[in-house]
Design brief:
The protein has two helices and seven strands; from the N terminus they run H-E-E-E-E-E-E-E-H. 15% of the residues are buried. It starts with a helix and ends with a helix. The protein has one domain: Sandwich (Immunoglobulin-like), CATH 2.60.40.10. Helices cover 21% and strands 40% of the residues. The chain is of the alpha+beta class and 107 residues long.
Length: 107
């Protein structure tokens, strides 16, 4: 009985310790969108899927972050964009870029 309790306790603690939240931010730089994704401990979220969708949810572009958690792209449309990064196991974060920011970046 003690072994079952110890194993349950160990699995519960290790699952919590191994879980990481992720954060994503995006900014417009010289007409391109620069995205960075990090785990809560500051390490980059590398080589994971990224989707760029419009306000209606239609995916306009997809790709992967590089080893440093970076994804750069030319905006596929001058529209409000939602950038989603998925690190698996339900760890997903989003960032938003406004159409206005994309239009202002051209000036």
């Amino acid at each position: 009985m003690r072994r079952v309790f110890a194993l349950t306790l160990l699995l519960g603690v290790s699952g919590t310790a191994l879980a990481h939240d992720i954060a994503v931010w995006a900014e417009v730089v010289k007409g391109r969108v620069h995205v960075e994704a990090y785990f809560s401990d500051g390490s980059p979220v590398g080589d994971v899927p990224v989707e760029v969708a419009n306000a209606e949810g239609k995916v306009l572009l997809s790709g992967h972050t590089n080893a440093k958690g970076v994804f750069d792209f030319a905006p596929p449309a001058k529209a409000d964009l939602t950038i989603s990064v998925s690190a698996g196991d339900g760890h997903t974060a989003t960032a938003h870029v406004k159409a206005e920011d994309l239009k202002n970046a051209e000036k």
